[in-house]
User: Fold this.
Amino acid sequence: MVNVILISHGAFCQGLLQSLKMVAGEDFGVKAVSLNEGEAPEEFRVKLAEAIKENHTDSEQETIILSDIPGGTPFQSAAYLAKQYKIGLISGMNLPMLLTLCFEKSRDKSLEELVNKVTSEGSLGVQAKLFKEGEKSKREKLSVDKNR
Assistant:
């Protein structure tokens, strides 16, 4: 089975993991490793390597790492560790992407299949809508007060 690790600058990855638990009811074995303020890149790399090793029970074990932004210290650290481990590295993580990954990984898909699925347009969860002032369109009320 493919393991999942979230990495980010600060507590973003831990917050995303908490959101996963809130929405899906469980954590699916996902781990979060954050780069803390003032932490040296080498220290972070050691923490990340330990999280990867915890999941690697054999040489065939694979890990998908979701990162906050490309090119940052967390991303670069994961890329460096790809020399030693089978890693799929994806930047721009978000909750729809993580949910897709967790539900799909339980179906015993390969690392390559999961990376392709998670980075497909339908899994990215990005939508844009522009609402003009005074626009009257059909959308649900956000208020729980039905008398408004």
Residues 6 and 32 are 5 Å apart (CA to CA). The chain has a mean pLDDT of 89. The chain has one domain: 3-124.
